[in-house]
Design goal:
The chain is of the alpha+beta class. The protein folds into six domains: about 80 residues, no CATH class; about 70 residues, no CATH class; about 55 residues, no CATH class; about 55 residues, no CATH class; about 55 residues, no CATH class; about 45 residues, no CATH class.
């Protein structure tokens, strides 16, 4: 015969009370009612133990049940003690934190923030990593490292990034291919503020320069906002320029474009090896000086011009175009070797003088004209429009050629 469950429960309750009374007695407490409870307990247990052997499938004796219950209680107590001594879990139960959030107090726990970094639930007026209260549904973490690890980010980058600036270096593509430092831009270069989270970080500026495959002698000063005072090719004007403050005048033209990384120690080296140009021409040109040499002026009617201040009058016509780099030492040499023209005609023409010679004017009706000021009246008709015009010493020679006499 099986014992009803409610009778077993009552016996267990009585046994539990008896154990409590024994414990009190050991502590010196009053135990006047203890015999009565023990007696009831004994009668109950004996009554149930008498019937407990009637069936092989019946529940185990109460003593065994009580021993099993005590063992379970001890294991539970031991487990609670272990848990209290262990490190806190990485993730906090969000539901309990929502209750805390509703009180308006800060938890000082960490949570995911914008930009794939972590923030702390504390007053943002205190500075990073404090960024105020998060949304209730966001996960919480006990430490900043746990938060960064939970987000799959490198704690060596995420933790300093969440605290503010990492002071590491990264490649800045916004203003050209150069290196910048993750620090407050108000401090000046190389500090350019926080980079995007996906950008690679470098421990030193030199490592960053190596990462972009630029010469540290060029890359480091560029990142720090310093001039190198070295020379480079200015492809816009096809001359050499110096990496120095343009306010100082030529050859200083400021920093070159980021892709223009070749540098030369001297202006002569830049002209010779870089541009392949004659340093006697390239150097003064790059320095903004006139060479006083002569070159062919291809504008309108070709003639020879001198590399000097055009305000001085002909033959001075200023610097030639960048591609026009052939120079001559004398005007006669320019006319003869450069233009292949008679110097007796070319030289006065280049100097803005009249030759007073005669030539055939082919406009309207062909006739002979004199190379002199047209304001003087005929036969003066000014210069011929063509440099290669045939000139005659007299009007008769010109007419003989024109009419075949």
């Amino acid at each position: 015969m099986r014992i009803p469950f409610y009778l077993v429960a009552a016996a267990l309750l009585a046994a539990s009370k008896a154990e409590d009374n024994v414990s009190i007695k050991r502590l010196g407490a009053s135990t006047e009612s203890e015999p009565q409870h023990q007696e009831v307990n004994t009668i109950s247990i004996e009554a149930f133990s008498t019937n407990s052997h009637d069936d092989s499938n019946e529940d185990p004796p109460v003593d065994e049940q009580r021993s099993s219950r005590r063992s379970r209680l001890e294991r539970g107590s031991s487990r609670r003690s272990r848990i209290s001594n262990e490190d806190p879990p990485v993730q906090v139960e969000s539901r309990s934190e929502c209750v805390t959030d509703s009180t308006g107090t800060f938890t000082n726990l960490f949570y995911y923030s914008t930009g794939h970094k972590c923030a702390q639930d504390c007053d943002s007026a205190n500075g990073y990593p404090c960024m105020g209260k998060p949304e209730c549904w966001l996960e919480r973490f006990y430490t900043l490292a746990d938060c960064c690890g939970g987000g799959g980010r490198d704690p060596d980058v995420c933790v300093p990034d969440s605290m503010g600036f990492t002071n590491k270096f990264y490649i800045d593509y916004s203003t050209g291919l150069k290196c910048a430092q993750d620090c407050d831009s108000a401090n000046g270069l190389p500090c350019m503020g926080r980079p995007e989270v996906w950008k690679q970080r470098f421990n030193t500026l030199e490592e960053c320069c190596d990462g972009v495959r630029l010469d540290p002698d060029v890359c480091v000063p560029a990142a720090e906002g310093r001039f190198t005072n070295k020379f480079y090719i200015d492809y816009l004007h096809w001359q050499c320029a110096q990496d120095c403050d343009s306010a100082s005048g030529l050859p200083c033209m400021g920093k070159p474009e980021f892709w223009n990384s070749q540098r030369f120690n001297t202006l002569e080296e830049c002209c010779d090896r870089g541009l392949g140009s004659d340093p006697d021409v390239c150097v003064p040109y790059s320095e903004g000086r006139f060479t006083n040499k002569f070159y062919i002026d291809h504008s309108a009617v070709p003639k020879c011009a001198q590399d000097c201040d055009s305000a001085s009058g002909l033959p001075c016509m200023g610097r030639p175009e960048v591609w026009n780099n052939e120079r001559f030492n004398t005007l006669e040499e320019c006319c003869d070797r450069g233009l292949g023209s008679d110097p007796d005609v070319c030289v006065p023409y280049s100097e803005g003088r009249f030759t007073n010679k005669f030539y055939i004017d082919h406009s309207a009706v062909p006739k002979c004209a004199q190379d002199c000021d047209s304001a003087s009246g005929l036969p003066c008709m000014g210069r011929s429009a063509f440099l290669w015009t045939v000139y005659f010493d007299t009007a008769e020679d010109c007419a003989g050629w024109l009419f075949g006499s």
